[in-house]
Amino acid sequence: MTEQVQTTPGAPDASFTEDNADAKGRFPPRGVPVITGVNRVGLWSLYMKEVRRFLKVQTQTIWGPALTTLLFLVIFSVALGRGGRSVLGVPFADFVAPGLIVMGMMQNAFANSSFSLLAGKIQGTIIDLLMPPLSEGELMTGIVGAAITRAIMVGGAVALAVWIYPSADLHVSHLWAIAWFGLMGAAMLSLFGLLASIWAEKFDHNAAVTQFVVAPLSLLSGTFYVIDNLAPLFQTISRANPFFYVISGFRYGFIGASDIGPGTEPVVIAGAGLLAFNVALAGVTYLLLKSGWKIKN
């Protein structure tokens, strides 16, 4: 008498094994990826994880930079803007305000993207980023996208603070320049922050990049002055600083003038140059992520 094996409808049959799964067509062959194309769910999950991380402490990550930037504006407009001083045909406070807005955006984009991988390496949780089925491009896009989102939020908060300040007026002259140079500046510092987090092995390394690279390039980029006031040598050095083009182009969107050059054409060329620079920076970042340097070793 043979024993009959009962199976419930839809349940796998008793003879099903991993070896004959491919023959039955229930799973793809080994080594064939299940997810093809862009992993949209994984990319969106990573992006939202990064956004929620900085929104949980938004007093520090969004509103704190707005207050700090407003204090910069008050101090410099009082110290340097007395006597009705004007720069590029506008009051000094109107001149310096756009530069402070985009400088706050860039610095916070760097801070956001430089934290994720570095914190994972130090705390031993980097496997949470490397284990999911995300390609290097998707990993980079999720982290950089969240950093750009924080930069935009900080820019809005800083603009609101500047709008409240009675001595500064924000008038939009070229909306395309505000959007383009704001995006290019945020993307550039997001990618640079991700590069820094790949290289850094402890928080001191990241702080060193902030203090000795990002802060000097930000403050020496023409935020508080026009480079025509500098000696020829220092004008040349300033024009080699990509932060200069971000800040001057962003300012052009508000006041309709910049020290990049006369007219709109130099500003457009600078915008195209920033795009090419960001593409190159993204390529380097992608290659480093793919190599696993200081991440998978």
3D structure, described in words:
This protein has a two-stranded antiparallel sheet with strand order 1-2. It has one domain (38-291). Helix 4 (92-113) packs across helix 11 and helix 7 packs across helix 8. A hairpin with a 2-residue loop joins strand 1 and strand 2 (90-91). The model is unreliable at 1-23 (pLDDT under 50). The termini are far apart. With 297 residues, it is mainly α. It has helices at 21-24, 40-55, 58-80, 92-113, 116-123, 127-130, 136-164, 175-199, 203-219, 232-239, 242-255, 265-291; strands at residues 86-87, 90-91. It has 12 helices and 2 strands. It is a multi-pass membrane protein. It comes from Qipengyuania spongiae.
Give a quick precis of the structure.
The protein has helices at 21-24, 40-55, 58-80, 92-113, 116-123, 127-130, 136-164, 175-199, 203-219, 232-239, 242-255, 265-291; strands at 86-87, 90-91. With 297 residues, it is mostly helical. It has one domain (38-291).
